[in-house]
């Protein structure tokens, strides 16, 4: 597999407006799940998502390959992690521009076959004001048996919740995410091999970020997060915050996600 370096530097620009209704729906979706600060974090994932007709989607519900992202011929795409810097709160009623750029493409050989990592840098701005900057890491791979980490001992969680199909559906709608593993259980089980509906990686990061800021009582400035294994709907999810070290674990203590948060002084 070669030739993908020509895609590095490719850019995409989109614009959106954060409306009071979008903010209200985001808050309604997460309220009571985790504490929310005055300016909820990770709301930018609800803005300027690619809006494509059904004819431009792949079987999995993602945009078909070969648009902004390279047409890597590996069938599974996952959100592996990333890092976010929150520069300023998102303003209501103002045009917000998302500028996305393919920052790097790396190939490696994993235990179950080839892997391709694509780093995408995003900047959200309003006029000359930077609001959010982030780098997302996507991984493309071959189908492989689901790896669920061994159970581990764990302390007392900060918050425990049970994500259900309704939460996943509402979050998919908020972020205009068509990936079928989040709402089509027969597809998730029979095609992609999961034991149930999959909780969005960005949703887990959103829960950890907002919980961390609420616990710290200070504005969260930077978040680095990494997925370790999928969280599954209707299974308990434990969230831990400890001085900026964050974790999400499954019901039996297996690691789902880790994150590191830094705050304003």
From TrEMBL:
Pfam families: FAS1_DH_region. Signal peptide: none annotated. InterPro entries: FAS1-like_DH_region, HotDog_dom_sf, Mitochondrial_HTD2. Residues 13-125 form the FAS1-like dehydratase domain. GO terms for molecular function: (3R)-hydroxyacyl-[acyl-carrier-protein] dehydratase activity. It comes from the Bacteria. PANTHER family: HYDROXYACYL-THIOESTER DEHYDRATASE TYPE 2, MITOCHONDRIAL. This is FAS1-like dehydratase domain-containing protein. It comes from Algicella marina.
């Amino acid at each position: 597999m070669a030739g993908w370096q020509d895609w590095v530097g490719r850019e995409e620009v989109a614009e959106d407006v954060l409306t009071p209704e979008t903010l209200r729906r985001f808050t309604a979706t997460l309220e009571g799940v985790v504490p929310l600060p005055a300016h909820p974090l990770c709301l930018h994932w609800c803005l300027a998502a690619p809006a494509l007709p059904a004819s431009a989607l792949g079987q999995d519900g993602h945009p078909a390959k070969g648009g902004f992202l390279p047409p890597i011929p590996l069938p599974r795409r996952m959100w592996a992690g990333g890092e976010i810097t929150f520069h300023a709160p998102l303003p209501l009623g103002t045009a917000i521009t998302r500028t996305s750029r393919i920052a790097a493409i790396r190939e490696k050989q994993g235990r179950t076959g080839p892997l391709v990592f694509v780093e995408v840098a995003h900047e959200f701005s309003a006029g000359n004001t930077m609001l959010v900057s982030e780098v997302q890491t996507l991984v493309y791979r071959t189908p492989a048996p689901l790896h669920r980490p061994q159970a581990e001992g764990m302390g007392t969680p900060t918050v425990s919740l049970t994500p259900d199909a309704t939460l996943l559906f509402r979050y998919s709608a908020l972020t205009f995410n068509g990936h079928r593993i989040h709402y089509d259980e027969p597809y998730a089980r029979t095609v992609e091999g999961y034991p149930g509906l999959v909780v969005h990686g960005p949703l887990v990061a959103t829960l950890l970020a907002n919980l961390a800021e609420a616990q710290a009582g200070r504005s969260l400035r930077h978040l680095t997060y990494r997925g370790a294994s999928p969280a599954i709907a209707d299974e308990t999810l434990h969230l831990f915050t400890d001085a900026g070290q964050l974790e999400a674990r499954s019901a039996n203590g297996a690691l789902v996600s880790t994150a590191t948060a830094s705050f304003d002084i």
